[in-house]
């Protein structure tokens, strides 16, 4: 961190990151139920940590996406945030786009660990990553000057791909030669393989995301902001990370808005200062101003006005409204769930922001019992502490 961080700063950021996981898990049971009245009928005033059930959606408009999930599990938003966290940990607190793309593809793609709903930005990003790699392979094959048979070209591509997915630039040549030497001892074939690897490497694009303006663009930001908090390149790395999954200018603008908000809160500044700093980055400041102007907390009403879908232009005003009027973490998360729609996506800004403001425990912070209800909480909290304390 470029600002003068203290143990109190790091504690605040750890609390904030934990708040994202808690908020997501708390919201999962009624995620994408758009009918606020039905949510009240199902869950009353304590809608958090319900096990997802299809019958909750009967008699109300919504989409049941989380069959098989249990109370305490997180949504695909949380899973994607975990991927970025793992990449930041592995890269010693630096955003490594190639590493992030590889982990994203490995986790959500065929044979990966994720079992659950795949949203459109994730699906399109996986398709784009495959297409980008295939185009790079074709470019490499077409520029190879060595006299190779089709079989040799196929074998070389098979041998170099594992390395182009992990390594880049000058890291490639030596391991690629060694891998090829297991089959072909001829120097000219090995050099052709190095050419293939280096050409593929040059043509792998960092902007692999979908042309999409939905919440996955901002939901993964908390760990990134935690690492780059207070640093002058925060906006630069925010855009780079967002374009991995959401290659869209409007999505980037909303992400800058969310990152500004979290950055100021993570540094211990007031909510009013954070909201004021974040608002100019937005694509529609009028809607944000209206969300802030209401006299009291009415997340359901905010959803009626702004919308409840995954679209950032609908979600961010609701987020601003909840943050500016909720008096505690619990009140904010319950209001977010009662609003309906994409509550899990909004939770990844609402939760970290409220936890940065109010911490853990007490009347206004994250309830200790809620922390304990998150699936795999010990591992998640250990990663959070490692990530933040490493900086």
TrEMBL record:
Residue sites binding Mg(2+) per the record: 342
Keywords from the named record: Magnesium, Metal-binding
Superkingdom: Bacteria
Cofactor remark: Binds 2 magnesium ions per subunit.
Metal-binding listed as a keyword: yes
Cofactor(s) the protein needs: Mg(2+)
Alphabetical list of InterPro entries matching this protein: ADP-ribosylglycohydrolase, Ribosyl_crysJ1, Ribosyl_crysJ1_sf
Gene Ontology molecular function, alphabetical: metal ion binding
Protein name from the UniProt record: ADP-ribosylglycohydrolase family protein
Lineage, highest ranks first: Bacteria, Pseudomonadati, Pseudomonadota, Gammaproteobacteria, Pseudomonadales
